[in-house]
Every structure is written in structure tokens, then in C-alpha cells.
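Summary for the steering committee. The consortium agreed at its last meeting that each partner would contribute one worked example illustrating the joint modelling workflow. Our contribution is presented below. We chose a case with several input lines so that the handling of multiple components could be demonstrated. No manual editing was applied between input and output; the record is shown as generated.
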Amino acid sequence: DGGITQSPKYLFRKEGQNVTLSCEQNLNHDAMYWYRQDPGQGLRLIYYSQIVNDFQKGDIAEGYSVSREKKESFPLTVTSAQKNPTAFYLCASSTIPEERLFFGSGTQLSVL
Amino acid sequence: AQSVSQHNHHVILSEAASLELGCNYSYGGTVNLFWYVQYPGQHLQLLLKYFSGDPLVKGIKGFEAEFIKSKFSFNLRKPSVQWSDTAEYFCAAFNFGNEKLTFGTGTRLTIIP
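What follows is the complete predicted structure of the assembly.
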């Protein structure tokens, strides 16, 4: 069953801690994306990658980092520099950037 | 900066009412337009899309949207809503000029049985 798997579903971060959100896809898509969803603000792009070993900053990349070592995987690290990390994080993928996105089920990150 | 505007933040309708959700984008040039829906507890999924051709596009579950280039609009419509249409709806536009996809802030739709 093809799709995008995000884990964990819920994540708690302590002050000063880095946490990593996992995103795996088996759709053979080249492009992968991380969005942050906040109430009343819609989806804002954090980082995206169109090819392995390459990625670009989105609109709100500060305090986040990513890697794309494999086509299937695009983990997002929320660093201690991100001062307001509480949000719902969505991973997505597409064949090409202008095509439709397929979304994962999301990770809710909260600060302890 | 490019933007996508959804002016209705929360819409409440009774079953069988007609629905129209507004979506406007801020730039000219070639765009691909999308409506995504997020049902409670489910993934965001594609409702419908416009790439080219007939400006009236039909999606799943009886939804349709009309691309009006002169108004920079891509409003979502459904003639008769059902309780199961309760969800959050997001409009998005892909700008070929800068190859960016921008989402609107979303509209929460609540259908009262």
C-alpha cells in the first residue's frame, strides 16, 4: 500500500532539545516537502527537496534542518533555535513540484 | 510576495444548503490551482485541481471549482452539502514563475444535520 508515513504521531520536546520527525514515502516521488500547520495560518513551507542530497529553504526554515540521503526519506529536525515549535507538522511528496501533493498523517509537536 | 486568500475562515451551513468557498491568488502568469480537504482525523487529500483547459473542474464528492482568470479566483462550490462534508478546506496555487506552491489559510466548514 503506497503512501507517506510520518512518525511519531505525537512528540514532546523539552527546552533546549533537538527532536527529529520522520517521513518516509514509497511512492517513488522525487520531490518531498515539510509544512507547518498552525490554526488560522494554513500551511507554511519549511523545507523542500527535489532530488537526493539537495534541499532548499522554504518560507520559515529558521530553527529547522533537514537531510535527504535517500529518495524515500526526508527527516526534519526541530532545533533548540526554533522558539515556537508547537505545531502540527506535515510531510508531503509529489512527482514534480507543479503536480498534486500527497500528504502524510502528520506529527503534533508540543513543548514540555 | 505571492499569496493565496481564503476570506471565509469558518462557514456553518445546514445540510442541503449550497456552498461556495472563495479563493483568490495574487499574481498573474501561469498557475496550477488546487483545493485540498482535511476531514477530521484524516490526511490532507486532493479534492480537485486545475491545470489548463475547461475552467470548470469537477472533483470528488460532487465538488467543483471555477477558474476565472480575470478575477484571479478559483472558488469551490457544491450545490447541496452533506454532514460528511464537515472538514477544513485549503486552496493552493503553484506559480510557474518562481516554482512556488502557496496555500491559503484554510476554511473550516461545519455542516449542521
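Chain A touches chain B through 18 residues (CB under 8 Å). Chain A has a mean pLDDT of 94.
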